[in-house]
TrEMBL record:
EC assignment: 2.1.1.297
Originating organism: Massilia violaceinigra
GO molecular function: peptide chain release factor N(5)-glutamine methyltransferase activity
Catalytic activity, reaction form: L-glutaminyl-[peptide chain release factor] + S-adenosyl-L-methionine = N(5)-methyl-L-glutaminyl-[peptide chain release factor] + S-adenosyl-L-homocysteine + H(+)
Pfam family, one: PrmC_N
Protein family (similarity comment): Belongs to the protein N5-glutamine methyltransferase family. PrmC subfamily.
Organism lineage string: Bacteria, Pseudomonadati, Pseudomonadota, Betaproteobacteria, Burkholderiales
Protein name: Release factor glutamine methyltransferase
The encoding gene: prmC
Residue ranges occupied by any Methyltransferase small domain in the UniProt entry: 96-193
Enzyme class name: transferase
Length: 278
């Protein structure tokens, strides 16, 4: 039906003909036609070819079926940088920029940072791009995710060392000034896993297949063995998990335990310092 409507139409008419929100219409039109937003204006009188109409109709059909825009176009902006994404990694979200900002505030000059469960590499690449003096290491258990992250680091000219590891397994006795993570924290069976974009994202990066806290527990328990004295651990978590994560940190002997709110006012990140803080 969409193809029949689009065939032979002017490019300038697409915004009203496509059945999505205006922003999504524009993004998909630009992607299908290989032009910029300005191109949509300057070429507004040009008629769509049959091939262009078919390509655009296929993209619109994928979006109408619920597939995230980021996967359809293969890209997402994060912290002012362009990231390639595919179904092997989570789509970077604006909420996670809070974790980057907190990390940058706490990373000392020429400091060493570890990003655990890096996915697309968004956190590690954003920090390394902003702080080229830092030594940034990023790990993930997924080889497919690491391939995406490496490509993103190269594309953004960020020096990041990547390690395939199941949490702390492959980093032995290495020590860092800062450890950050956006781990799987959605509880198994949570209704949100069957809604919206989450239906298409890798389940292993979303849920721990348990109570939503198992990955956070692993990180809290293992981080002191890999943090320099006074080093920070920062973790993103669910909208209703801050109190539980603070309790884990307090029970683990950390100091300066606290949580930070995102732009929506939700306690999105919790963290603390390892023993020996001054």
């Amino acid at each position: 039906m969409v193809l029949a409507v689009l065939a032979g139409q002017r490019i300038g008419a697409l915004q009203t003909l496509l059945p999505l929100e205006p922003l999504e219409n524009r993004i998909l039109a630009c992607h299908a036609l290989g032009i910029t937003r300005i191109g949509l204006i300057t070429q507004s009188e040009r008629l769509l070819t049959g091939a262009e109409a078919a390509t655009l109709a296929a993209l619109v059909a994928r979006r109408l079926a619920g597939e995230p825009i980021a996967y359809i176009v293969g890209r997402r902006e994060f912290y002012g940088l362009d990231f390639a994404v595919n179904a092997a990694v989570l789509i970077p979200r604006p909420d996670t920029e809070l974790l980057v900002e907190l990390a940058l505030e706490r990373l000392p000059v020429r400091g060493r940072m570890l990003d655990m469960g890096t996915g697309s590499g968004a956190i590690a690449v954003a920090v390394a791009h902003t702080r080229p003096d830092a030594g940034v290491t990023a790990l993930d258990v997924s080889g497919a995710a690491l391939a995406v992250a490496r490509a993103n680091a190269q594309a953004n000219r960020a020096a990041v060392r990547f390690v395939q590891s199941d949490w702390f397994g492959a980093i032995a006795a290495e020590s860092f000034d800062l450890i950050v993570s956006n781990p799987p924290y959605i509880a198994d069976g949570d209704v949100h896993l069957a809604q919206g974009d989450l239906r298409f994202e890798p389940a292993g990066a979303l849920t721990d297949h348990a109570d939503g806290l198992s990955a956070l527990r692993t990180i809290v328990a293992g981080a002191p063995h890999h943090l320099a004295p006074g080093g920070w651990l920062l973790m993103e978590h669910g909208y209703d998990q801050a109190a539980q994560v603070r309790a884990l940190l307090a029970a683990g002997g950390y100091s300066e335990v606290r949580s930070w709110r995102d732009l929506a006012g939700i306690e999105r990140v919790s963290g603390a310092r390892a023993g020996g803080a001054t």
